[in-house]
Design brief:
Blueprint (H helix, E strand, L loop, with lengths): L20 H9 L2 E4 L3 E7 L6 E5 L2 H4 L2 H18 L6 E7 L8 H20 L1
Parallel strand pairs: 3-4
Antiparallel strand pairs: 1-2, 2-4
């Protein structure tokens, strides 16, 4: 069996999650923003040395639990793949209605652009 990158190295770990109300409030108050028809992504520099992710994907936008969970999986997967290249920024992803109709490739492409845009804005 060939040697591959360990799944542990590229996993979405607990310390990379934004979970507290204080963390979300800090980002919503003062942030850098990237917007397209599928997502709005907010970002703010942190002092932790690694990127963290929070999601605000409402049932109102998604329509039902299946669609909502599909979007959340797509966001986590994109973040996990980009994780090695992302600077120390706290990201919050908010889905828009168009995201529920988009295929996985479009979701991934949109999120990859957002990671790049927010990273550039936070660096400036």
């Amino acid at each position: 069996m060939p040697t591959t990158v360990s799944s542990k190295v590229r996993s979405y770990q607990k310390h990379q999650r934004l979970v507290s109300k204080a963390d979300f409030s800090r980002i919503f108050e003062n942030n850098q923003r990237s917007v397209d028809p599928l997502f709005t992504v907010l970002g703010k520099n942190n002092d932790l040395g690694y990127a963290r992710l929070g999601m605000a994907i409402s049932m109102k936008i998604a329509g039902n639990a299946v669609r909502r969970n599909r979007l959340k999986r797509a966001v986590r997967e994109s973040f996990r793949h980009a994780g090695d290249t992302l600077p120390a920024i706290d990201f919050v992803v908010m889905a828009k209605a168009g995201a529920t109709l988009a295929d996985r490739g479009k979701l991934r492409h949109s999120l990859d652009r957002h990671w790049q845009k927010v990273s550039e804005k936070c660096a400036a």
